[in-house]
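Lab notebook, bench 4. Still working through the backlog of constructs that have no structural model yet. Next entry is a single chain of 144 residues. Request: give me the structure tokens for it.
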Amino acid sequence: MNVKTILLVEDNASDVELTRRALAKSRVGNPLVVAEDGQVALDYLFGAGTYLDRDTREQPAVILLDLNLPLMDGLEVLRRIRADHRTRRLPVVILTSSKEQKDLTTGYDLGTNSYIVKPVDFAQFVEVIGQLGLYWLVLNESPV
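Model written out:
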């Protein structure tokens, strides 16, 4: 994988913009692909729908996955990512506002690599995004 792309699966436009700003402020310059719902994320990963011509051999370095999504929730997206041999090893970080223990437990049961509750404070959010970028895009060695 030459380019370490980040796939952000997030339906809230404000949170997408907040994430873009936090990435920029943290000096994470990797390309960001935004999927506004779970089905679009799966289409991107598997080269379907509007992504039919995408080279699926080039997968994101990390997926930042919200849980509260229209059409298909984040846990179902995670379930499908882990069920397919092409994507089962992709690093998936659940980045959500949900503090529900059931979501946390189910996320780990389905194979998330990390579960992070979005900080409300922008400075804290920037710090979290910076640490995510450093770890998943620089330090982590991926088998993919």
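Notes after review: The mean pLDDT is 93. The first strand starts at residue 6 and ends at 9. Flag for follow-up if needed.
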